[in-house]
Amino acid sequence: MASESISVTTSDDQTIQLSRKHAQMSQTINSMLEDSVGADQEAIPLPNVSSEVLKKVIDWCTHHENDPAPVEKVKKLNKKREYKAKNSTISDEWDKNFVNAELRVIVDILLAANYLDVKGLFELMCKHIANELKGKTPDQIRERFGIQDDLTEEDKAAMRKAWGATKNDS
Amino acid sequence: MSFAAESQRETPGDFIDHDLDRLQRDMYCVFGRQGTISNADNTNMKVSIDTQLMSDDSSSTSTEEPPFVQIDMDIASEPIQHTTMEPTIYRHQNPPSLSFSSISLQLSGGRKSSKADSYRKQLEREMTRALQRKDRDEYDSSDAGQRMTTDDDRMSVVNYHSDSPLENLPDEVLIRIWSFLDPPSIGRTAQVSRRLRDISYDIPMWRDNTIHWMQNKTQGLSLDQLHRYSYSFFVRQFVSFRKGEKKKEEEVKREQKVLRDQRRRTRASRIMKAASYGRVWEWICAICVVLFTILLVLRLQDILQCAWSIVFIPLFFIMAQLLLAPTLYDAFRTYYDYNFDTELEPDEEQNRVCGPIFFYLAFPAPLQVDPKTSRCFIYPSVTLITLWIILLVLKLDGTTSLPHWAVFLPLIITTFLWSQLPLWVGGFSSILSDSRRIDRILGCSVILSLAVFLILLVLKLDGRMEETWYVVMSPLWVGKGIFMMTPIFFTVVKLWVYLCGCGLTCCRSTTRFFSHWGTLCVTFLGISTMVLVPLLVFEILMAQLLQGIAHPFAVVFIPIFVIEGFILCGCCVVNCAFLCSD
Hints:
The complex is a heterodimer. Chain A is mainly α.
């Protein structure tokens, strides 16, 4: 293994140093490191991540560096995709504060986590957004997330028909 | 493979070497190779990667068709600040870094490493998004939906009009988010927009969410079973579950409503008890009666020189209570649509000792059984008696010159009304069909005798009748006679029937005296000795007094005091017994 510190270049062209331990929490960087074994220690380009977001990610990684690695779940029900409805409660207090940010930032972190393949952070952000979605009426969701209602009346009628009377309640 | 991008910019000179370097680096990220920029000047840019995708990855690639990527772009309006590869990163910058007027993306792949694949997908996605934004700005929405196809991946471009941060998320990520939702929430989010609806119809997610949800909600469905079913099954399941939930909610709501009503009723009954139905009020009323009698005697003896209205104050108080009690009850009954049958009834403990309290017996009990008839009797009689008392006081004080018949008219009407009471108990229909006709006719005649007495009294007072007071009083005695003779008469009839052994069924059907012979005999005897005999003595004495035999009033009223004493003692004994048993 090379040095303990790894430098990455973010989209806004800043070079940020992060420890190898943190870098390895990202599967993407990890695989890049493995690819470039023996190569010169040059900055890894991360064209999809801005420095601001990366700092947030590093914050999270610093706090969770000692967490046990996520256990690979056995894909029992569905071999192709494993979507399992999980408990969406965020237990960690630090995480609760961490997700307490603007929605745009949250989404950026989520995208970065997806790109960098940081599982824990990705899950956390998904949970947070899921919690935001829960228990809201369609109108409230539109308002909260700034989504325009592009469903036609026929769409809505079809949905109502498919779902029965349960659609109209809140 | 080749990667070509042509750019057209309004502000020449912005396209600097730095950008080209970045482009090179990005292409390295995406395709694992550095490409060459063949044509780059101020207005046009053509970039190509002339090597095959991951050609250095394995030797077998060379035999396959080379992976081919071609991107044709006309870059207009905004100056380019960064490379075309990363529209997603810079989209929050102001102004947006680039916009496409048209784009066609063709990717045809041989073997690729997973990393390059994922990058490529990302590129596709970002370009699609950029295209959507561009279309929203410049074209009709009908032009916006475009379809891109790749050999190994199909991706439909649907036009989503939104700047929401949520819309920037790729579908996979959204589905991951959705996987944390429960079916009710999915149902609601599906109604938000077209894209979210499409996300919500992801079957595996749906299935897993529903299974998870049901696992938490119910038992009895095995996972293996559920695994086989289709999407519609789960929707149906969910709907049925939802209905069940609704039923439960309704039940809870109903229970809450019942509890709330219960509380309100309890409060209302407490108010009623405090206002008129409490035992205390009965005591006060009983004492008022005694007080009135004493005051009356004192006034008649001229020991007390006050106005008659003061003498009648206790009676006014009683009348006020009698008026308040049914009004209050009726008001609450109408308001809550509930007849308070258990609340106002004295509790069982009390009930066993002394029976229902007077006010309950007088008003709520008949109103509960038959509100219409009871109202017809209660309100007119109470009002008429009150009117009579007022008129009597006015007459006695000499403020009004009304004749006696006018003063007594309300009371006469009341007695006539009461004489109908035994017939009407149980409603109109029971008059003809009731089997206890004889009892009722007897009760009716007793009260009618009172009415006859009142008429005679009025005639005598007005001086239209010259008969003695004994004659005037005689209807009362007749009525009492009928009342007291009743048990004897029925006993004789019973014996006769018993001895002869005939007509028993006929008698049973016309009177209940036979079925309750013992109890009724005791009741009649009790009433006779405690009330009727003293009353009879009082009336005889009164008649003698009016005929000119000078009894002092105190002596005349002794029987009345005896009756009141009986009542008070009875109440006292019963109450003491109740208190002791507590």
